[in-house]
Amino acid sequence: MKKKEKQLYLWLIPMVIFLAGFVLAPLIVTIKDSFFSVSLLNMNDKEFVGMVNYINLFKDRNVIKAFSNTSFYLITALIAETLLGLIFAYILKEKFKGHGIAVAILILPWALPPLVNGIMWKLIFDPSIGMINTFLMKLGIISDAIIWLNNPKLSKICIILVHVWRMVPLITIIFMAKMKSIPKEVFEAATIDGASKIKQFFTIILPSVRSVFIITLVQGCIGAFHLFDEAYSMTGIAYDTRSLLIQNYLTAFREYDLGKGMALSLVISFSLIVVMIILNFIVRRSVDD
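Structure for Sugar ABC transporter permease, as requested:
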């Protein structure tokens, strides 16, 4: 091994130590304790229970409901974020008057912390002082104020709207970066051949951005599985809107069942990995075709 290569490996040692101490060690402890009955009130008193924690998870109606809610958030978010991201990226890929301001406004939701977004939108949806009801009543669309966050179906839609509003800027930037890499000559040639903007979108842009679909889908999956702040700040621990992370928090820190909580965290992580592998397979297959 050359001296320069040895030096490069030496520079990796701090990162390896960091990963071992802050990633691998907690992961090993989590896996180990998921097979024990561990109470937050007395963490030294552990009893080996094997797969009981995992079995109890799938018997728990709260966990099943949280999986159902998160599945809804995931599917809806991926579709909405992808479509809106493509549209906004197509609009913003070319310079125009006020382009910088438009990009800054677009990025703003992503720049705000998720908890701040949730609190802000909770006020917007407020039945008494919220802008949504005021606006709809002035337009004559509704006559009485709608209690958005107390209705099980409406509250889930409100939460996913806020989540998509926060995630779309990131997806847009990823698509826009790829679109900007397409040579201008390609669009000029298509225009000369009489191709409309819509035809150019489907025949040039869509095939070109397929390679970054997996990046946007992975980001969307992570965002949906990690949905906590928006749901918690808008509807608290409500059963009908509870995400997997909220249920994980309740299991570990409200029910004081750390063993079951660790088992649930591993199930969530495994589910996320499986979903991303499936999406990766689908996208790569479509790109290869």
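The beta strands are 36-39, 42-48.
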